[in-house]
Specification:
Blueprint lengths: L1 H13 L9 H15 L6 H10 L14 H12 L4 H13 L14 H12 L3 H14 L17 H6 L6 H5 L11 H25 L4
Helix pairs in contact: 1-3, 2-3, 2-6, 3-5, 3-6, 4-5, 5-6, 6-10
Amino acid sequence: MKLIDDTILFVKQKLENAESGHDWFHIERVYKNALLIAEGEDCDITVVKLGALLHDIADSKFNDGDETVGPKVAREFLESQNTSEEIITHVVNIIENISFKGGNFEKKFTSKELEIVQDADRLDAIGAIGIARTFNYGGFKNRSIYNPNIAPQPNMTKEEYKNSEAPTLNHFYEKLLLLKDKMNTKTGRKIAEERHKFMELFLSQFYAEWEGER
């Protein structure tokens, strides 16, 4: 489909110099996750594909916290492709409602397509790749790996979550370990279970090494 091919090319160009946890390869993994999950769901596959490809086109973390940039860029691109307003609006709603935002964010829009893309994105935040992305971003922000004197805050508000400068390991308790129980789809939940177990194993090993036990 030409629209999907053109969107892939656009996203690759737009994210060419992105931080490696939020680059084209992140988008590609989310896209593949979304296609896998969509196989078992009744959904508009075009919206799922576009939502997955454009969900991080301008992440607010890299745009001074401005959450309007991503939806705006996506809308302008889709309009340039003569995409129907119905599809554009749906994709924009996915982008505006997909993020974790501390876990206390109340979605203002729901759809099966959003559930699929959200699960696909969350799967890339957990497991082996999720661990790698977490420490990569922590290094990017020059955060400490771990500080036992700074306790995790798993019930932060959206603003507290956005402005947090806590050690990277805290992020496991503030987001990653919470995602398993927030999955929307049967396939998403099944995959999340395995990735969650891997993170628990990693943390067990991490603390043992930290204390000089292994």
